[in-house]
Amino acid sequence: MPSRAAFCRASRSTSCVELAGHVHGLPAEEAGWPDHPLNPYFARLCARRGYKITIIAVAHRLCRIIFAILRHQSDFDVAKLGVERGPFEHKIVRAYRLKASSQ
Question: What is d(CA 89, CA 76) in angstroms, rounded to the nearest whole number?
């Protein structure tokens, strides 16, 4: 794996931090898509906190999910995210929604 400095020189970017932010933010931005399993979390948090903070929070959640997968040596399971799949309509069609809490 190339070092960060080599990666930045190869990218011809003026700012390595700016480039790293773009590369690492892409998976988190995909949570904004209606058919992404983290979309309900993204939409709820984005309404409360704003887009930029939501991107960081979703990236952090993805890191925690990846760490748990590696720690338990298991496969990714959408059911563990607390979402359910289906064509749900609420002004727009979404592929996932939060499960109703059973208390």
Answer: 26
Boundaries of every domain in the chain: 4-76
| 17/40 Cα distance (integer angstroms) | 29
Q: What angle (nearest 5°) sits at the alpha carbon of residue 4, between those of residues 60 and 64?
A: 15
Query: CA 44, CA 61: separation in Å to the nearest integer?
Result: 14
> 8: Cβ–Cβ under 8 A, 6 or more apart, which residues?
16, 19
Instruction: Dump pLDDT digits (tens) for 52-90.
Output: 999 999 899 889 988 999 999 988 888 888 777 777 666
Burial 25-55 (b: 16+ CB within 10 A, else e): eeebbebbeeebbbbbbbbebbeeeeeeebb
**pTM for this entry:** 0.59
